[in-house]
Amino acid sequence: MQTPAFQRARSVEHKQQRRDEMLAAARDLAAAHGVRAVTMTDIANEVGVHKSGVLRYFETREAVFLELLTEGWTEWMDACVPAIYQANGNPAKVAKAIAGTLAKRPLFCDLLAHAPMNLERGVSVEAVREFKASAFRQIDRFERAVTTALPKLTKADARALISAANAFASTLWQISHPTAAVAELYRTDPHLAHAVVDFAPSLRRQTETTILGLLTRRQNG
């Protein structure tokens, strides 16, 4: 954490540095405590400024996390796309590439769940436009990789696949990482503990099932 004597950035370079520090603080806090638990005040305290200092750079708390999600999309595709190409047309390996690279990015999976629920609702329309444009560019990369690796699938199939994978990842992540109170409930009531899932294997199974279903549909016309 910075000292209370933290000075306002003046130059463009220093302003970008300050902005990056705030994003890094939000990233670390969310990774440690979950996106839902992190407030704008938490981020400000982490970098040693007043909440108003963070508001000079980000319009809302949601804007901070929407930017992290934007970065997450690019970072995921940088890992996922090469892995899909390396799958050599094997549906199970394509599923492993998609699910495996998602499972290695827990914060991204957490953020995916919050995007439609509140991140996109707590920022300006222009911020949503920029986020969507960036995400769609990454989806285009995914689409090209999938239709190359599995040529029987169409562009629409690839889009359906990434939509399903994102839904699986965001939902399964929340289920597999309950709050402390809910985790204690599962521990003390084994009858309810079946609700807990093993995130990575479940994500891979669901993704592979989706791919096989899309291929079967194309095969059957």
UniProtKB/TrEMBL annotation:
Is the keyword Nuclease assigned to this protein?
A: no
Top-level division of the source organism's lineage: Bacteria
* Classification via Gene3D superfamilies: Tetracycline Repressor, domain 2 (1.10.357.10)
Q: Which residues form the HTH tetR-type domain?
A: 16-76
DNA-binding region (UniProt annotation)? 39-58
Q: What is this protein called?
A: TetR family transcriptional regulator
- Keyword annotations: DNA-binding
The answer to whether the entry has keyword DNA-binding is yes
